């Protein structure tokens, strides 16, 4: 199907109705809505695999949500979703499928009736074969007492997903083995990591699909130099490649490689061989549970009616908040220290996926797309930016993420932590209207509350897949390609030109500001 011909949300009659609803709802007050409608929480909350969501404190009512479902159908969301799972080239600008759900489809029979389809059988077999080899290798590393440290070198999607997941699943990591991540081109990160390591006790994972990524290859070469100068031997034993460029890896000295496919986008790649560091950390069975949680959410997204489909409801809420209510930002506040890197992971997932200005046909968008996504764990955020959330001039929806069961034995901590999450959501809604001046809180500030029973490989997998599909839903309505990232490439090209100029001092053809800055930096690169 030619997805460029599918109507955008703003081109449908339903869109005009939504805008009319917005005008009619001027003065909508969540406090009144909850107080006057005893069934509001039940209607605007939902369970899905691994996750419970409360949407009741958002500035939306059932009439608006019903119109959003009508909008989704008018935009062909269901057909677009089915095309994603069928392996059609929904990544239109690159002519590729976006088959990350296939990475977590089990081999012993699917939870999704009739999926994977016969058309995907060969791809599914290749996925399963790679997974088995990957997990077998992970178990060998875990059984090797000589290896105490694993260093994963990547950047972007090759780093954010595994790094976030390893930290999130800290209680499931094997005692006595440390997993480190290096991504930044700034050598301080690599130097600080290497300072505490011994070469013969360390395994390096070099994660780059093309084996050409500047940051990753620079860090990998420096790591190899450190390994050899510190007395390390046998590069082939201590360096592993996660790449499709087998010959380039071999030229580097790597013999063991694990590949993946061109339909695996970087920010959707933690489920693939890119997640090897996580598989080593939590083991084969833990990694299978991680995939199983995501697969269960895939089943929910693919088969549940729109009105009972949590990724759909959240994605439609995002469109409502961004384009109808005009909220340009969303704060993510996980009330769990192990989810500290989740906001950074979600920044890439959403802002790289949907941070676009043209639609699938190359036409300029008529409405804004992705909001700015940001955040920090609670309760730290309460003592930093929550002041702005409560009393700032802009309304910023907040997404609270809480976990019911703690995985520590400190009895006095967990109940106060959850009480703070509940209190902040309540305070944002209620405000403080009986006080004047500096003590006045306007309230009526929207929030969503996501609750996991426990943070496990399964529930983390489900949560991440929920966010993936949510991003797809909003991108589908905006009519954009959520799977490309052309905006990332320009800076890379310019950096390749500017790097040598720091040494040569040549500023020919540059703008005045860049030329002047190179002039100031040039002395640091001159040979003594």
How is this structure best described in words?
- The chain has 19 helices and eleven strands.
- The chain has helices at 13-24, 30-36, 40-43, 62-74, 77-86, 121-143, 157-168, 187-194, 214-229, 235-238, 246-252, 276-303, 310-324, 342-354, 386-391, 414-430, 457-478, 489-504, 512-521, and strands at 45-48, 51-54, 149-153, 178-182, 202-207, 239-242, 256-258, 329-334, 372-374, 398-405, 447-454.
- It starts with 12 loop residues before the first helix and ends in a 7-residue tail after the last helix.
Summary, kept brief:
By secondary structure, the protein is an alpha/beta fold.
Helical/strand content category? alpha/beta
The helix count comes to 19
Sheet with the most strands, sense and barrel status? 6 strands, mixed
Radius of gyration, taken over Cα atoms and rounded to an integer in Å: 24 Å
Span between termini? 62 Å
**How much of the sequence is in beta strands?**
5-15%
Average per-residue pLDDT, rounded, comes to 95
Low-confidence stretches: none
Compressed to H and E, one letter per element, the order equals HHHEEHHHEHEHEHHEHEHHEHEHEHEHHH
- Specify the overall morphology: globular
Helicity, as a percent range? 40-55%
């Amino acid at each position: 199907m030619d997805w460029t011909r599918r109507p955008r949300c703003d081109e449908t009659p339903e869109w005009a109705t939504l805008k009319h609803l917005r005008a009619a709802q001027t003065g909508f007050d969540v406090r009144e809505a909850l107080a006057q409608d005893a069934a509001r929480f039940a209607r605007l909350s939902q369970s899905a695999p691994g996750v419970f969501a409360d949407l009741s404190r958002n500035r939306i009512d059932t009439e608006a949500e019903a119109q959003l479902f009508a909008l989704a159908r008018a935009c062909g969301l269901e057909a677009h979703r089915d095309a994603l799972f069928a392996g059609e080239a929904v990544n239109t600008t690159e002519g590729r499928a976006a088959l990350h759900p296939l990475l977590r489809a089990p081999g012993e029979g699917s939870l999704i009736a009739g999926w994977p389809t016969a058309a995907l059988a060969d791809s599914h077999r290749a996925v399963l074969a790679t997974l088995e080899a990957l997990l077998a290798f992970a178990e060998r590393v875990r059984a090797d007492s000589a290896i105490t440290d694993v260093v994963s070198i990547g950047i972007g999607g090759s780093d954010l997903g595994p790094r976030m997941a390893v930290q999130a699943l800290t209680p499931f990591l094997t005692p006595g083995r440390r997993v480190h991540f290096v991504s930044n081109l700034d050598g301080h990160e690599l130097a600080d990591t290497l300072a505490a390591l011994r070469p013969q006790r360390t395994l390096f994972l070099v994660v780059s699909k093309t084996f050409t990524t500047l940051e990753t290859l620079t860090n990998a070469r420096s790591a190899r130099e450190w390994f050899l100068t510190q007395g390390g031997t046998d590069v082939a034993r201590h360096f592993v490649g996660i790449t499709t460029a087998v010959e380039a890896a071999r030229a580097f000295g790597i013999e063991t490689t694990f590949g993946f496919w061109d339909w695996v986008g970087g920010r959707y790649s933690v489920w693939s061989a890119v997640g090897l560091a996580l598989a080593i950390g939590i083991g084969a069975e833990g990694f299978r549970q991680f995939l199983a949680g995501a697969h269960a959410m895939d089943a929910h997204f693919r088969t549940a009616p729109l009105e009972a489909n949590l990724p759909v409801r959240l994605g439609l809420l995002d469109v409502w908040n961004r384009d109808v209510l005009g909220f340009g930002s969303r704060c993510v506040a996980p009330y769990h220290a192990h989810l500290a890197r989740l906001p950074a992971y979600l920044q890439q997932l959403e802002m790289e996926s949907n941070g676009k200005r043209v639609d699938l046909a190359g036409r300029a968008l008529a409405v804004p797309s992705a909001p700015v996504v940001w955040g920090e764990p609670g309760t730290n955020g309460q003592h930093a930016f929550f002041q702005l959330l409560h009393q700032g001039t802009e309304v910023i929806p907040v997404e609270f993420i809480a976990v019911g069961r703690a995985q520590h034995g400190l009895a006095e901590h967990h109940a106060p932590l959850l009480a703070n999450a509940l209190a902040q959501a309540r305070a944002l809604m209620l405000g403080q209207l009986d006080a004047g001046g500096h003590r006045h809180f306007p309230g009526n500030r929207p929030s969503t509350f996501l609750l996991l029973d426990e943070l496990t490989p399964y529930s983390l997998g489900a949560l991440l897949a929920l966010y993936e599909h949510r991003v797809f839903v909003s991108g589908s309505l905006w009519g954009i390609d959520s799977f490309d990232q052309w905006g990332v490439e320009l800076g890379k090209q310019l950096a390749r030109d500017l790097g040598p100029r720091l040494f040569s001092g040549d500023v020919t053809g540059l703008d005045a500001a860049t030329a002047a800055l190179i002039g100031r930096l040039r002395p640091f690169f001159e040979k003594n």
